[in-house]
Design a protein that fits this description.
alpha/beta, Rossmann fold, 2 domains, 10 helices, binds magnesium ion
């Protein structure tokens, strides 16, 4: 029987793309830069790529912070440095709180019926700001943010830290719910946690990163958990 749920936040509870678009547009506007929707979409691709490199251990967290903006800002004529822009962007991002449809209802349900923990890759400043703005911190017994933990999902160290901080942790009674094959599904599978992929776009699962179960809407989760 399942009694503990580890829940990813970005693109599982927060609509991260919407948050990212808002934060980037606000930061660019503050810097007086004229931009298109395409620019914003390009940034998203650059950022995704950098996070994949971080998950694989190919770049460091501090490099990620500015390198994505070095690449992105090269298209504009501006005196703003990547580091200054990174500070501004992260400030703006910490003030975004767009939730996915049904997320709050799911959090209400899970927090009443399970021991609920957040497991998120991100910076403490941005994640804490968004969690408090959205008023969702109250649903979790603890929030594990990779910057605090010292390693990101899918690394074993991340899950070791969670296991050590969850009272009477047991693999058999825990599930991990998240959208990402490379951080949530891979990390959970390798650690021996039952993985559930939230996959609203019905994207293909990479063969070596197949979740134990998959849901297409958050509303499917309560019934699925009861069936396990
Ligand atoms: Mg995610």
């Amino acid at each position: 029987m399942i009694d503990t749920v580890l829940l990813d936040l970005d693109d599982t509870i927060f609509d991260f793309k919407a948050c990212e678009r808002k934060a980037l547009s606000a930061a660019l506007t503050k810097c007086g830069l004229v931009f298109s929707a395409e620019d914003v979409a390009d940034y998203s691709k650059i950022n995704d790529l950098m996070w994949k490199l971080l998950e694989k251990g190919e770049i460091k967290r501090e490099e990620l912070r500015t390198r994505r903006f070095e690449v992105f800002l090269s298209r504009y004529e501006t005196n703003v440095t990547p580091s200054e822009f990174a500070d501004l962007y992260m400030q703006m991002l910490s003030e975004t709180d767009v939730l996915i449809d049904g997320a709050r209802e799911l959090l209400e349900y899970l927090s009443k019926n399970y021991r609920l923990y957040a497991v998120t890759n991100g910076y403490v400043q941005t994640q804490s700001g968004r969690i408090s703005r959205a008023d969702i911190g109250k649903y979790f017994r603890e929030i594990f943010i990779s910057q605090n933990v010292g390693a990101p999902k899918p690394k074993k160290e991340f899950f070791d830290y969670c296991a050590a901080h969850i009272p009477s942790f047991s693999l058999e009674s825990t599930v991990l719910i998240g959208d990402s094959p490379t951080s949530d599904v891979l990390g959970g599978n390798e650690y021996g946690i039952f993985t559930i992929r939230y996959n609203p776009a019905r994207l293909e699962n990479p063969p070596d990163k197949t979740p134990k179960r998959e849901v297409y809407a958050l509303s499917e989760i309560p019934e699925l958990l009861l069936s396990l």
